[in-house]
Design a protein that fits this description.
about 5% helix, 61 strands, 7 helices
Length: about 1000
């Protein structure tokens, strides 16, 4: 056993805890470790030993002030013993560590009969955790495996995260890359601005940031949700962090299995969706009442010692199968019968080489397989007919392998090294795909005078065809070194992340029907003539041939260094000062850097905590920090890889049986053919001109102030205020005319220059663009926000939270949390929820100044009120009841129409301006979606006759069967040519379902 020398200075309880919680050798924000600290009666030769069920054995000397600390302990259950003269005189068993936190285990005055059981000269007592965690200065919620086994939750990392304050469901159409889970917004940020970790490895989707790889549900030991305030060791997130720690083997062999069933007969359905505007108002759009689904989940685990106290093994597998049908919209009229198969596995080996060196090896896999068939469906009779076609089948597979080494070099020096690799494959195919059939977009906008009021379609179900060879890899290397010097804990390290996106891309061809004002140009820039200039367009109906193509293999390199000092100012005050420097580089398909943000991007972090009474009964804390966000690989597809995105416009006099227009008359256009509002004609841009010179990363500043207080031995309450300010964004600007005009004013003629369609920029700020001069050189054009007619970028988030908690007392536990917040500005972030746009940092926002007029308002993830309550009640030794309540006000509605009072289309974007019926329409001006009231209950029976190893449980999600609208179609059109789709519901919240389960643990 290692011997730790006595500390040279007196440290208070909070200093010990935070030195552990904030150092690299301690419990970092996304680490898999915790710490133990406390005090004991002072005696000669006194030590404290912590021994876990996983064989970890650490011994430290109690200081002259009666205090001790044991840092960087792997998660698990410990027995902590007070040793005198080499013999145990007092002990605490069942000490469970929480990730990223310090656990107080004190011996002074803890040997009363009410707290302990005497065993000769040895006193053994159970662990009692102080209700207020004085070891943290951040906004952290930790949910343990024990809680997950009781609470009625959907089985996903995002559903667990919704228990934390400030975490709300994101736009329902945004789902994870490797699974179909809906994503979450944390602290007002967009869903792509969160970071995911698995056993300390960054598993965030490298393509676009949509989710990350997570563990089989039964393999989760703890899930940590951070909504801000974490230290300098971690970054690349200005939303929040979802970090999972997996289970590990112990000195006893355990195994178990579980069967879960969600039957179709107990599942509710959402209301049908109807047209609410235009000529179709009142008609059904989509029928949900005939949708059905059942889900079955099988899982098992095994764990134990390969060599007792030395080598441990744990493995878990999970297979989820979903069989469903879904009636599509009336515009396509199919009944899609489909299946999902989602297998996962997880394995971990822990090797205690000796008392000072530990090695951990982790492997995990998450796979999603989908296949479906489209059957003809008759909306009039509600009958399903013959097979029409097969849907595109997908197989997305993600695998992670991680190695971690921890060395307690000396009493004051700890080294941690972690290296991991993640590989993702994305395979898709459309069985029976007929390339001779062209997809039909918006058939509801077909001219009823031609169709007789019906909608004419064909059997083509695939709009886009993806590259079946698509894959991506991520490598993450971390080195962290912690050094204790007097009353300072100095931590430093590197955090390197590399991702490679290979053979990414997709192609699309479609006939897209449209409707507009007959005598108004379809687009002013690029010019497309009015519908009435072509035969058949006299009433405003037209069609376009839509072409879209992207293809690329690209890389992203991210580097970071940090330094942090946790300084104990006095017995009750601790100050944490940290500084992080991030560097981001994105490469195009040729290996040339088109985004090079490698100049120092300093991210200061400052935190302080005050143990007011010195007894962990009242903590006041504050922190401030800056957080930078890197650009994922997908940014290159539209910005740097030569994408094609054009429409060629026609009028028509007929429509054939395949839905194809006939009697075509091509409308005049700026190019004489297809036009692209973003100048995307398939040309590969010069990497030196893709982004503005000296472009900066997106970053956000955050401030928090809060307190936690123990009311008595049964209750804890607290409050927290949080402010977030987005200081800089990165998106594309496509206003070439303004750039050319500014160049001309500077004496440059760039009218014939080979310009990009859009330029990655820092909107709302000044940008400098390099424009080819035609002679192998470049001219530089400085553009201010005013030159583009754009406002300053803004996203502000304010939140005030209060909570009341009753820790588990052997009978019941519960927590209720209320949060009032406001999220407003003119940019949601990297994506845009109101229109469901997934193009990271290439949104409609900021393309042109006219798109940003009246753009300031309530943002898509704004939820004014959030009330969350969850808990469990041990009714009897065999019975457990649990509940989870989530009440949220609805998100803001948006109405987007044509530009200005005259409802024109000056830049060719159609119904995407912040005007509605000719009037200004800021976000949120159209009202809000309805409140959601989600009440879920569960019950579990563990019979004594099975030694409580066998459990029967039932969970009812959304007992009230309330399915409310969460999103609707936002494009208004014009008052003379209203969009038939405007206002119809596009997504509802999940209706009721019931889950039955049988579990056996041995």
């Amino acid at each position: 056993m290692s011997k730790h020398s006595s500390p040279m200075v007196r440290l208070s309880r909070i200093s010990l805890a935070l030195a552990l919680a904030l150092g690299a050798g301690a419990a970092l924000a996304q680490s898999t470790t915790g710490s133990i600290f406390g005090q004991a009666p002072v005696a000669d030769g006194e030590t404290v030993v912590a021994r876990s069920t996983t064989g970890v054995n650490r011994e430290v000397t109690v200081g002259a002030d009666g205090r001790y600390t044991i840092g960087s302990l792997p998660l698990g259950t410990y027995t902590v013993s007070l040793m005198q003269g080499g013999k145990a005189v007092d002990a605490r068993n069942d000490v469970n560590l929480r990730v990223g936190s310090g656990t107080e285990v004190s011996f002074a005055g803890a040997t009363s009969a009410a707290q302990a059981t005497s065993l000769g000269s040895v006193t053994v007592s159970a662990n009692t955790l102080p209700p207020v965690d004085v070891s943290s200065v951040d906004s952290r919620t930790v949910i343990t495996a024990q809680q997950l086994a009781k609470l009625p939750l959907a089985r996903s990392a995002e559903a667990i995260a919704l228990l934390a304050p400030g975490v709300v469901p994101g736009y329902s159409g945004f789902t994870g890359t490797t699974n179909s889970n809906s994503l979450v917004s944390i602290g007002g940020s967009s869903v792509t601005e969160n970071a995911y970790y698995l056993n300390g490895f960054n598993t965030t989707d490298p393509l676009s940031g949509f989710g990350g790889i997570t563990l089989p549900y039964g393999a989760i030991d703890q899930q940590e949700i951070l909504s801000g305030g974490y230290g300098a060791a971690y970054g690349r997130s200005d939303g929040g962090v979802i970090s999972q720690s997996g289970k590990r083997g112990t000195n006893e062999w355990h195994f178990g299995a579980q069967l879960l069933w969600e039957p179709a007969f107990a599942r509710g359905t959402s209301p049908n969706s109807y047209y609410v505007s235009g000529t179709q108002a009142g008609n059904i759009y989509r029928r949900y009442s005939q949708n059905n689904s059942w889900t079955a989940t099988e899982s098992a685990y095994v764990g134990g010692p390969l060599i007792k106290d030395k080598l441990f093994f744990f493995a878990a597998v999970e297979q989820e199968k979903q069989d469903s049908n879904s009636v599509t919209a009336v515009s396509t009229s199919y009944n899609n019968q489909y299946e999902y198969h989602d297998p996962k596995w997880y394995a971990k080996i822990d090797w205690n080489i000796n008392d000072t060196n530990i090695v951990e090896l982790t492997g995990a896999s998450s796979k999603t397989q989908y296949k479906g068939n489209f059957y003809n469906y008759d909306y009039d009779t509600g009958q399903t007919g013959s097979l029409n076609s097969q849907d595109t089948s997908t197989k997305n597979d993600a695998r992670v392998y991680i190695a971690k080494y921890t060395s307690y070099i000396t009493d004051d020096l700890t080294l941690t090294a972690m290296y991991g690799k993640q590989k993702m494959t994305y395979y898709s195919e459309t069985p029976g795909y007929d390339p001779s059939l062209t997809y039909i977009l918006d058939p509801e906008l077909q001219n009823p005078a031609v169709t007789g009021g019906a909608q004419i379609n064909n059997a083509q179900s695939a709009l886009t065809i993806a590259n079946p060879d698509h894959e991506a890899t991520t490598r993450n290397l971390r080195l962290d070194l912690s050094w204790k010097v007097g009353d300072h804990t100095i931590t430093g390290g590197i955090d390197n992340l590399d991702s490679h996106d290979v053979d990414d891309g997709e192609n699309a061809v479609a006939w897209e029907y449209g409707f507009g004002t007959p005598d108004v140009a379809i687009s002013d820039a690029p010019f497309v003539a009015a519908p009435n200039t072509g035969a058949g367009g006299e009433t405003g109906y037209y069609v376009s041939k839509y072409l879209y193509s992207t293809a690329a293999s690209v890389r992203v390199k991210q580097r970071a260094q940090y330094l942090e000092d946790s300084w104990q100012v006095n017995d009750r005050w601790l100050v944490k000062v940290g500084l992080r420097n991030d560097q981001f580089t994105n490469y195009n398909p040729n290996g040339d850097a088109f985004l090079r943000m490698t100049k120092p991007q300093w991210a200061p972090r400052l935190g302080a905590a005050w143990d007011v009474n010195g007894d962990s009964s009242l903590k006041i804390y504050a922190n401030a920090g800056r957080y930078y966000l890197a650009m994922p690989a997908s940014v290159a597809l539209r910005a740097a890889a030569g994408s094609l995105y054009t429409n060629t416009y026609y009028t028509y006099t007929g429509i054939d049986s395949n839905g194809y227009p006939t009697g075509l008359t091509q409308l005049a256009s700026a190019t004489g053919g297809g036009v692209s509002a973003n100048n995307e004609y398939g040309q590969s841009p010069d990497p030196k001109t893709v982004a503005s010179s000296g472009i900066k990363s997106e970053y956000q500043d955050e401030y928090q102030l809060g307190f936690d207080q123990q009311i008595n031995s049964d209750w804890v309450w607290g409050m927290k205020g949080q402010v977030r300010k987005l200081r800089n964004i990165l998106d594309d600007i496509c206003d070439l005319d303004s750039i050319q005009a500014k160049a001309a004013s500077l004496g440059y003629d760039v009218s014939e220059a080979d310009m990009n369609g859009c330029y990655l920029s820092n909107p709302g700020r000044s940008n400098t663009y390099r424009i080819p001069d035609g002679n192998g050189g470049y001219v530089s054009v400085d553009m201010s926000a005013a030159d583009f007619g754009m406002p300053q970028a803004k996203r502000s988030y304010y939140a005030l939270e209060t909570y009341l908690e009753h820790p588990f007392d052997g009978t019941w536990t519960g927590k209720i949390d209320y949060l009032y917040s406001k999220s407003y500005g003119n940019t949601e972030g990297q994506v845009r929820s109101d229109i469901g746009q997934t193009d990271v940092s290439a949104t409609v926002d900021w393309d042109y100044g006219k798109l940003m007029e009246y753009s300031n308002g309530l943002l898509s993830n704004d939820r004014k009120h959030q009330l969350k309550a969850y808990g469990s009640w041990q009714v009897a030794p065999e019975w457990m009841l649990s509940g989870n309540i989530l009440l949220m006000s609805g998100t803001p509605k948006t109405c987007l129409g044509y530009y200005g009072a005259d409802q024109t289309n000056p830049i060719g974007y159609g119904s995407y301006y912040h005007y509605c019926g000719g009037l200004p329409s800021p976000p949120g001006a159209a009202g809000r979606q309805p409140w959601q009231h989600i009440v879920s209950l569960s019950a579990e029976y563990r019979p004594m006759w099975a030694d409580q190893k066998l459990a029967f449980n039932v969970m009812v999600y959304n007992v009230l069967n309330e399915s409310k609208a969460t999103a609707d179609y936002v494009n208004y059109g014009t008052t003379t040519a209203p969009n038939t789709n405007y206002g119809r519901v596009t997504y509802y919240s999940t209706p009721r379902y019931v889950r039955f389960g049988i579990t056996y643990d041995f």
